[in-house]
Specification:
The chain has nine helices and ten strands. The protein is of the alpha/beta class. It has a single domain, classed as Alpha-Beta Barrel (TIM Barrel), CATH 3.20.20.150. The strands form two sheets. An eight-stranded parallel barrel has the order 1-2-3-4-5-6-7-10, surrounded by four helices. The longest helix is centred in the first third of the chain and has 21 residues.
């Protein structure tokens, strides 16, 4: 069954985030386990992890998702950045596993420094290193990008090729489909829904869509601008999200909003209404 939720702050402590999620109307939730801007990550103690799981049960938060920090770039020319990114994703998988999270999602980085062909190779190499020897239960998802500049992962065909190169790695489960990012990169969910579903099915496959970031778009389709809006207040609109919600329900995919408070409360209600 499709669960609906949103990104929740851990500013009051990871162990307190399930209660916040419940108060927002969440059935599932997404968190950062550390500052998304960088810096040292505080250890998640066994006691904290245990309390977090108890609180998730208490507040009926069924599925947990973790987002990697913003600075990830698997295609950087700078070895410190590239290997730091590999290490950061692996650490997030381990931290997420301690919390009982289902998936960790990550962006891939930028092809600006190395060019498209070499960057593709570095991404494949980097993801292989991330998952080398990994035995955890939490799996990894690639999140599509809005496509600003030379950001990798805006095109469904490109993402599909990455998945194909790594199909022998079971810990890479598939993708997190961000509706705003895809809309901004040219996939018009309002006017070309069926056409874009065919493209998604052909290159990625519906079975590989494991999570949806349900965000409306403040920017035009094809703008390549990452600008989220509350559902119904953006360019995708309510009719577009009805179709997206039907797809999520049919394929039992959870939906997580990354939209502004307090409007996110209404966003959750809208999505729940669409799938019930």
């Amino acid at each position: 069954m499709t669960q609906v939720g949103c990104h929740v702050s851990i500013a009051r402590g990871i162990e307190n985030s399930p209660k916040i999620a419940y108060e927002l109307g969440c059935e599932a939730m997404q968190i950062f386990t550390r500052s998304p801007q960088g810096g040292a990550a505080a250890k998640i103690s066994e006691e904290t992890a245990k309390k977090f799981k108890v609180e998730c049960g208490k507040y009926k938060i069924k599925n947990i998702y973790v987002h990697t920090p913003y600075y990830i770039n698997l295609a950087s020319k700078n070895n410190r950045v590239r290997y730091g990114s590999i290490n950061a994703i692996r650490i997030e998988l381990e931290r997420a596993g301690a919390l009982g999270a289902k998936y960790v999602m990550t962006h891939l980085g930028s092809a600006k420094e190395l060019g498209a062909e070499e960057s593709f190779k570095k991404v494949i190499e980097g993801l292989k290193k991330v998952l080398d020897g990994y035995k955890g239960t939490t799996k990894l998802l690639i999140e599509n990008s809005a496509g600003a500049g030379d950001i990798i992962g805006a095109d469904f065909e490109e993402i599909g090729k990455i998945l194909s190169e790594l199909n022998a790695l079971p810990a890479l489960a598939g993708i997190c489909l961000d509706t705003q990012h895809s809309f901004a990169s040219g996939y018009d969910w309002k006017n070309d829904f069926d056409k874009n579903m065919k493209i998604l099915g052909k290159h990625i496959g519906f079975k590989n869509v494991k999570l949806i970031h349900a965000n409306d778009s403040a920017s035009e389709t094809g703008s390549r601008k990452d600008r989220h809006a509350n559902i119904g207040d953006g360019k995708i609109g309510l009719e577009g999200f009805k179709k997206i919600a039907r797809f999520a329900k049919k394929n039992k995919i959870d939906m997580i909003c990354e939209t502004a408070y307090p409007g996110v409360i209404q966003d959750i209600k809208i999505l729940k209404n669409f799938i019930r």
